[in-house]
Amino acid sequence: MGKETALTLWFEELNKKDVGLVGGKNANLGEMINAGIPVPPGFAVTAYAYKRFIEETGIASKIYDILRETIKDSKDPTQYEEASRRVRALIESVKMPEDIRSAIVESYRELCRKIGTDSVFVAVRSSATAEDLPDASFAGQQETYLNVRGEEEVVKYVQKCWSSLFTPRAIFYRTQKGFAHERVLISVAVQKMVNSRSAGVMFTIHPVTGDKYKIVIESVWGLGEAIVSGAVTPDRFIVDKSTFEIVEKEIAEKTVEYVRDPITGKTVHLEVPVDRRNAPSLTDEEVKYLAMLAKKIEDHYGHPQDIEFAVDRDLPFPENIFIVQSRPETVWSVKPREEVKAEKPKVAVERKVILKGLPASPGIYAGRVKIALTHEEAAKVMEKGDILVTKMTNPDWVPYMRIAGAIVTDEGGMTCHAAIVSRELGIPCIVGTKNATQILVNGGYYTVDAKTGVIYEGIIEELAKPVPAAPTAAPTVPAMGMVAAPMPITATKIYVNISIPDVAEKIATETQADGVGLLRAEHLMLSVGKHPRLLIEEGGEQRMIDAFAEGIRMVAQAFYPKPVVYRFLDFKPDEFLALPGGDKYEKEAGHVGPNPLIGYRGAFRYIKEPDIFRLECRAIRKVRDEYGLKNVWVMIPFVRRVEELRLAKKIMEEEGLVRGPDFKIWIMVEVPSTVLLIDKFIEEGIDGVSFGTNDLTMLILGID
């Protein structure tokens, strides 16, 4: 019997090409196991088994008849709910064919034998065959059942998973995305449960900003369902993808955890003991290891991933880390670069701030608030264009989220359901406000700035300008959307100077400049915090390379594809003195003279200390080659003679930085000799100049 007609298949037998047989979830679990990723063992009940089930029991035609009869208005959520109720009752009421049942039972028995127990706890999870495609986030639309144990229970919950192919949210989503119901089948994963101490989700691209050089990890105590459901605001860790260093850490108060009851085996909600509520749910060691696994998974698939993980309370590190799912990230991985750039934040004007939260889906919207604590309540009160305010969403809320102008929740993090769906729908969303449902006034008007995570009282016209609203049954205030003010177009390119990389995105958005004419290296050197010669003596060369590369990347990415001209480090000897190691390597070395302006600096220093200059060159090459930001050019400061330029270029070429169509070399014109010899410099090979008027004025006139 081949794969195509198998009723069950072990994860080890699967790979990513088997999506049509076992759905995206199962195919990816098999793919990861075969790639050496730690995945809990299990098997897939194939889509072929489901297809045989609905055909042999004669319910296939009945299912599709119910859908056609019931759903007449694609925008009416109540029709989806009625269709779902009827179809699910039909699927769960018929008896499973005996050979399919036997195949499931035998595979479960074999899983128990492999683990060494008579009755293992498993997760029974759906895996739809159109699920986990890069442009369709089917995540969470079918059911997952945790802590299932025993042969009959497994069979029962497999059948429930089959029926969950027709939840209201799943029917709605397929209708909106244009998937024919008849063409979407369902497989089921039966996988050993991890006895989770902690669990969570990871994105290998920043889910809000689209920064592909960061890994975002969110975690809670107990099972990961607490994150997805929004019951708990998770801990949040941001990790540098190249160094695996934790660059940002936010530890939330976690009052609830979902755990397995040791007596009943069922999932229960417990209060987290006071001593653990504000403690990190992951150690730094676990965070870094998870980030390395995330990078390995992304490298294997070749595109950003949305990953679920669990940490077993019964095993030592690192054997306690398991990946339980990976799927393509569905927002930034499919957005064109122009659209990503258009979404950079605009600084809000000062107004009355009512509430703050986590900006989860960028955008600005102003309108009327509707507070709904259940999706049934949302069905009654929500009108198109309202701001939906609730504690947290789950997949049942999708029909009402779709008609919202913006979404605000009390709970949740950047990877919760509300955040993920809002980003896909393109709806501004702020999560984790803690008390929006209590603070905001039902029916009141507010401006939601989901780029900064701030909610203002009233309509702030400077932030959101009116756009036509779709007509509704009752008169409403016009919906408000963000409209960018047009900037004048000039024949002359307008560049900006930047010293601090952190402000690059803000400057790019506010100025809409044509590029960066001067990116100063001096702030990057200060951030490293040591004299470069001391770093080299201590073996810290890579630290300097990584720090410089990260700063340059931030600016280059903010302005991409516009040019960013990086000026090589031009600290004067007296400026180096302020750094640890400065006395030894500047004063004692005799570099500090009576007038640092004309001392040991610029291109001459690069030639005399090429090992330091090479570190900067390697940082530039890392940004251009590893990060793919070819818009980074360079500028050599304080060049006195043509020979200095020639020798500096030779070192650059040895480090892989060769002047060409996509790599330009400029020089600073700040020494009189450069002015007088400019023709010679052009002959030697430069692409541009920048006038350093401070130094040039003093050196021409002989004054300071």
Could you walk me through the main structural features you see in this protein, from its secondary elements to its overall organization?
- The protein is α/β, with parallel strands linked by helices and 704 residues long.
- It has four domains: 3-192, ATP-grasp fold, A domain (Dna Ligase, domain 1, 2-Layer Sandwich); 196-334, ATP-grasp fold, B domain (D-amino Acid Aminotransferase, Chain A, domain 1, 2-Layer Sandwich), CATH 3.30.470; 349-481, 3-Layer(bba) Sandwich (Glucose Oxidase, domain 1), CATH 3.50.30.10; 495-701, Phosphoenolpyruvate-binding domains (TIM Barrel, Alpha-Beta Barrel).
- Helix content is 37%, strand content 21%.
- The strands form five sheets. Strands 14, 15, 16, 17, 18, 19, 20, 21, 22 and 23 form a ten-stranded mixed sheet that branches. Strands 9-8-7-6-12-13 form a six-stranded antiparallel sheet. A six-stranded parallel sheet has the order 24-25-26-27-28-29.
- Helix 3 packs antiparallel against helix 4, helix 4 (77-93) runs antiparallel to helix 6 and helix 22 (602-608) crosses helix 24.
- The longest helix has 19 residues, at 541-559.
- The radius of gyration is 30 Å and the shape is elongated.
- It starts with 7 loop residues before the first strand and ends with a helix.
- The model is unreliable at 131-140, 337-349 and 466-487 (pLDDT under 50).
Structure characteristics:
704 residues, 37% helix, ten-stranded mixed sheet, single chain, Dna Ligase, domain 1, D-amino Acid Aminotransferase, Chain A, domain 1, Glucose Oxidase, domain 1, alpha/beta, elongated, 4 domains, six-stranded antiparallel sheet
